[in-house]
Amino acid sequence: MSNKTAALGADIAIGVAGPLLVLVLWEALVRGLAVPTYVLPAPSAIAAQVVTDLPLLLGGLGVTLGEAAAGYAIGAAIALALACLFVLAPVLERILLPVLVALNSVPVVAFAPVALLWFGMGPASKIAMVTLAVGFAVFVNAHHGLRAVDESAANLLRSFGAGPLRQMVLLRVPAALPSIMNGLRVAVVRSMIIAIVAEMIGAYKGLGWTIFEATQQVDFLRVWAAIAVASAASMAVYGVVNWLDRRLVFWR
Amino acid sequence: MMAGGAMPGRTIPQPVEAVPETAPPIVELANVSKTFGQGRQEVSALEHIRLAIGRGEFVTVVGPSGCGKSTLFNILAGLTEADPGASIRYGGQPRAAKELLGKVAFMPQRDLLLPWRRVVDNAILPLQVEGMSRAEALKRAAPMFPEFGLAGFEKHYPHQLSGGMRQRVALMRTFLFERDLTLLDEPFGALDALTRSLMQRWLLEVWQRHQRTILFITHDVDEAIFLGDRVVVMTARPGRIKLVLDVKLPRPRDAEIVTSPEFIQIKRQVLAAIEEESLKSFQQATGG
After folding, report:
1. Which residues form the ABC transmembrane type-1 domain (chain A) (predicted)?
2. Do A150 and B112 touch (CB under 8 A)?
């Protein structure tokens, strides 16, 4: 037990030491070489800016997180339902899968103008784009996981008299959980990126809009402060999903 | 039981008919064949299998690997259709293989325990498939844990168990699925010799107490004779029934029985039949 605790402590120490080292080097470099702020501000300056701009940044973060979360939930739900449906009804899969593959081969950001046109400058267009991006990431993983189920296990359930639906609930979904969680994890980062990029392309609120506006005003310190907040938020959500993953897929 | 002869077994030229004299059989197979693939790639896995199993019987099947034993099981479990022309009667009714889904308790070679389910929840899986509530299924399963040597392990996960214990969970799952016929496909194949012999005696006890009808696949001749009322010897591909031997050793059987003259006598016949088959398939393989 104490061995485990020590190992965990060492893990955390290494995990913290890396980024800390980078920050220290960065600070030293910027100060030593007197790098101008518009090229690269020092971490301490960015931190100070975050504190000054906190109400503005938190407000933006709230908007962005809200859009990302809404798109994430809708996209993940649609993707999971579709993946299950495709496995239950292979005919649907044969018809619709090529369409999905074609859509997915274009970067989601390319749909931004269309999304703005259809859903306006408000949060709806951002949610739509996040839905699309998250949906693909989750679908690809869930679909793969649901199909990769051990054939003998499926046969065992069949021999118990389980129909396709029972097999889905009792075997396929839990067996695909590691794969599904992988998709959900990848989708977290994607959802934040897409929400911010979509805001930069056209919005009145959110972190992406803050970044865009600060760039227009040549306020690079604020740009960096917004990036720092966005990155911290992404990591926090990622950590939560990781924790969930370990709890849910405990047998891996 | 057998007409004449002091021999504890009987040798019948193929195709072999093996119908027990007591009670109507639970399952009756006639002309069951199975070919896989088409044209040049066609492989005949089973040919003209004729077999009947009576209620309460313990029948063991031995044969070289690739003799179609597992195909036979898949047909009986309803997972694979036999070639047209086959006759499968189950409980006196003619059936297509797929109509046997949910009617036969089938334990495949691997334990196939679901890693996300606790031991109890793995054991009651077939009951839940039948639509029984978890609470009721748990009540049904509870008294079986001590019998299966799993008392105190109900809440464990499969990865926390030894190979022998996992196999017992799989067996318990199969026994909880109460059906007229139970198929066990090399359940002890992966266990060490000592555990294996313990499990064999234990299985006989459980079988007698629960009065099940068991068809048991193995490639271990000793195991087949030790467990079975009858031993069915199968040929190498295409799988045919080469020989059916009655094992009239007294029950309950203890470990020493394997050194008794009667046991050795049966073993000699089984080994001779298998030897002949192995030689044949070896010659086939080497183009002789």
Report:
1. 57-245
2. yes
